[in-house]
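As practice, study what follows.
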Amino acid sequence: MERHETSRRPRVQSDLAPFLVRISLGAGFLSAVADRFGVWGPAGTPSVSWGNYQNFVAYTAKLNPWSPAVMVPALAGIVTFAEAILGVLLILGLMTRMAALFSGMLTLIFALAMTAVLGIHAPLIYGVFVYSAASLFLAAITAPDKWTLDALIAKRGSHG
């Protein structure tokens, strides 16, 4: 009979991978939001995607040609708000599974929109499918890593 490999995996390894995935995803969302508000520099600066919110709204319009023009600013605002909240939740490890699931769905929709409008190369080069897969992987983990508020809340709940 084969022994399941995860039973021999050191606990730090099984906690470290979800921790790093969670922090990377959260930081990625917050970095994208920061870019929209010029935190990383103005438009045209190396490694800056938008540099200002108006450029992000224009990009949102480009990726959503089906959307009426009047709805584009609201869509850009909803996505920005969602990414900010999801980023914070993931970094804190609060409602981690739900945040990871919504992150996975949001980034999958983004990847599909990018593919439909820009072709497959754009979401591949920016790792959007990887981002989505990592989010869904994190959502599938049964227990939060020990460095989350979820774990702290669960621990306190078991003592009371």
